[in-house]
Specification:
With 157 residues, the protein is an alpha/beta fold. It is built from 6 helices and 5 strands. A 5-stranded parallel sheet has the order 2-1-3-4-5, with helices on both faces. The longest helix is centred in the first third of the chain and has 30 residues. The termini are far apart.
Length: 157
C-alpha cells in the first residue's frame, strides 16, 4: 500500500468512525438520558429557573407552558414523562388542569407533581386527595430542584 493510499484509507476510516460515534452518542443520549418534563406556571421567572436548573443540573428536557390551557395542549402533543404543575394560576388553576389531565385518556397516565406555596392544613388536605405523585413547596432551592424532582417522580439522575 502506498503512502497516499494509506492516508486516504485513514481519512475515510476516521470520518466513518466520527460519524459512528456521533450516532452512537446521539442514540444513547436519547434513550438513556433526558426525562422530558413539562413545567406549567404563570410566572415566567419561575419557568426560567425550573428550565435552567433541570436542564443544567438534571440533564432533563424541559417544556414550558405559561397557562393551564397551554399546558394541556403541550401535555397532549408532547407526552412528557412528568408534569410540574403550579396550583395557583389565573384562569384555570392547577387543580382544574389536573382534572382535565386525568379525564383525558391521552394524558391521564402522565405523573404530576404540584408546585405550591400553600401550606395551610386545609390546602394540604385538598392536595392529598388529588391523584399526584407529590408536592414541591415554593420557594424551592434551585440547586436541589433536579434531585427533588427526580426523587418525587422516582427517577435516577
Amino acid at each position: 500500500m502506498t503512502a497516499i493510499s494509506m492516508i486516504v484509507f485513514l481519512s475515510l476510516f476516521s470520518c466513518c468512525l466520527k460519524q459512528f460515534l456521533f450516532i452512537f452518542i446521539f442514540i444513547f443520549h436519547a434513550v438513556f438520558m433526558n426525562k422530558k418534563i413539562l413545567a406549567i406556571d404563570d410566572e415566567t421567572v419561575i419557568l426560567e429557573v425550573i428550565q435552567g436548573c433541570l436542564e443544567e443540573l438534571g440533564e432533563m428536557k424541559v417544556l414550558t407552558a405559561a397557562s393551564g390551557k397551554e399546558g394541556l395542549q403541550v401535555a397532549q402533543a408532547e407526552q412528557p414523562d412528568g408534569i410540574l404543575l403550579d396550583v395557583s394560576m389565573p384562569g384555570m388553576d392547577g387543580l382544574e388542569v389536573l382534572q382535565y389531565l386525568q379525564d383525558n385518556p391521552e394524558t391521564r397516565s402522565i405523573p404530576v407533581v404540584l408546585l405550591t406555596a400553600r401550606v395551610q392544613p386545609e390546602d394540604r388536605a385538598k392536595f392529598a386527595q388529588a391523584q399526584v405523585e407529590g408536592m414541591i413547596l415554593k420557594p424551592f432551592d434551585p440547586i436541589a430542584l433536579a434531585e427533588q424532582v427526580a426523587e418525587v417522580f422516582g427517577w435516577q439522575l
